[in-house]
Amino acid sequence: MRRLAVFWMLAGGAVAAHAQDPDPAPTDPKPAPERKPDEKPPAADAKAKAAAIAIQAQAVQGNRRAMRMWGRALVRGGAVKRDVKAGEHWLRRAYEYNDRAARAELWALPEHDGAGAAYRVGVAHQEAGREFEAVAQWQHAAATYLSRDSALALLRYFAQRTMRSRAHVIDYAVKAIAGGRTRDVVDILNNADMGERHVVMSTLAYAGREGTKQGVFPKGFDALRAHKEAAAQGDLDALVALGVYANKIDPDRGLLYLWSAALRGDRHAMAYLSARFYTGTKAMRADRVAAAQWRERAAQAGHVDAQFIVALQDLSTLEKRQAMLPVAARAAADGHGTARFYLSVACSGNKAFGMPKDSKKAAALARRGALQHDSLSMRAYASMLKNGKGTPVDLERAWHYYGRAAALGNDAALKVIQARAAKNDPWAVFHWGRLMVRGEGVALDVKRGLAFIQRAGAAGLPQAQQWWERFAR
User: Fold this and answer.
1) pLDDT of residue 364
2) Does domain 151-309 have CATH number 1.25.40?
3) With bands split at pLDDT 50, 70 and 90, how would you rate the model's confidence at 42?
4) Rounded Cα gap, residues 404 and 95, in angstroms
5) N- or C-end of the chain: fewer Cβ atoms within 10 A?
6) Residue 378 reports pLDDT greater than 90
7) Residue among 411, 421, 453, 406 nearest 434 (CA)
């Protein structure tokens, strides 16, 4: 009835106007405003705003998924006012809470103004021969400024290492892809001397999958399909690449690919099979005996990592420990971080290896292993930095590596942090709190973790104060 009343009111007005002007000028009827296909009705807008407010409330309370969703809403705008800076802040907080999905969201943001300058500092370090300083600077630039050039530089650096840096290669490849530098990634991987062809192939498959999910991979490029075609023609590297790629997506299918390549004599497939038997899969129980057998076969076939692990099985005599060191040196040259740890222990004056003491060499080896994310090397290097053995004392870096080792599950590093935190050491209290906030190495407890960080800041530790201020914003 209400609509009818409105209609008759409008119609009555039109009749009155017609009566006043017996010969009115013809006018086109005004069409009703049409809503755009993607335009939401007012009721939907209200619901979207209400949902955004609810998500914001959950984000403030510490829900990491809500933090990511709220950050995405601020970056995209729509139901809420667009604010890219605030959105980035919430995405970073979600990532601080160990929300891995927030990483891709961060790298899809525009690059910061300081990214170029930060990248060039790393280049200057590299040109001066300070390789590890360059890597550290690029990692800082990639994390802080979302520098695409730094991500590509790190990709290029780690691509020159072999299998032990595969996780780093994939990580920086995905970051650069999310930043819109896909073609550069493909060129680097195709031209890199990564030591083993299957590593390049599986990395391209991973990068292709992530790039396709984010809609940034070039159309027509399908590394996975190309690998399947090559495997069908008997390419063993393609079979291993498919097995490695399928490990996180469909482990049981990946096991079939690896089994097929291993039975044809591929040493890399044998080594991967050993690892699968050691941990087990959904369709297969862990079998330590089979794992040892495949490891032995891989070692006999010339797989350096397998040879090193076999050599570690028996270190009961001085002769066996010294015989292990050349194998460890070969594995370290292939990028094995744990091998660098054992070489570092041998050079540190440990009587069990009967080697002359060289503290500087031991520190350099531990540092290289730490940069390759080996928790044993991180703990050893942290101790050296803390006590000034072979390297100047640097408490900030020492506790940084203790924290990283503990986050990777190193119990010895975690015990050091716990013991020193019990004695109110500000650095230990700060890193103990960070582990709790992130749930790394310990149970997730955001409230207690923040209390520890706040306590470290109150004790006068500027790094804790800065972290707390950034988190509380």
Assistant:
1) 93
2) yes
3) low
4) 16
5) N
6) yes
7) 453
Report the amino acid identity of residue 28.
D
Positive or negative torsion for Cα 298, 304, 309, 312? positive
Task: With beta carbons less than 8 A apart as the criterion, state whether 175 and 103 touch.
Answer: yes
Question: What gap in Å lies between CA 377 and CA 373, rounded to an integer?
Answer: 8
State yes or no: pLDDT of 7 exceeds 50: no
Domain with CATH 1.25.40 in the chain: 151-309, 318-472
State the pTM of this model: 0.60
Residue indicated by tokens 């080996």: 374
The answer to whether 142 touches 163, Cβ cutoff 8 Å, is no
Instruction: Tell me which amino acid residue 372 is.
Output: Q
Topology of domain 318-472, per CATH? 1.25.40
What pLDDT score does 362 carry?
A: 94
72-85 average pLDDT score:
81
**Which residue, among 262, 301, 305, has the nearest Cα to 161 in the 3D structure?**
305
Who's near 10: CB < 8 A, 6+ residues apart? none
| Triad 229, 233, 239: Cα angle to 5° | 70
What's the mean pLDDT when you consider all of the chain? 78
Closest CA to 386 of 355, 432, 417: 417
- Name the residue among 124, 154, 97 with its Cα closest to residue 371: 154
Distance CA 212, CA 216 (A): 6
Segment 146-173, tens digit of pLDDT: 788 888 888 888 776 544 456 677 778 7
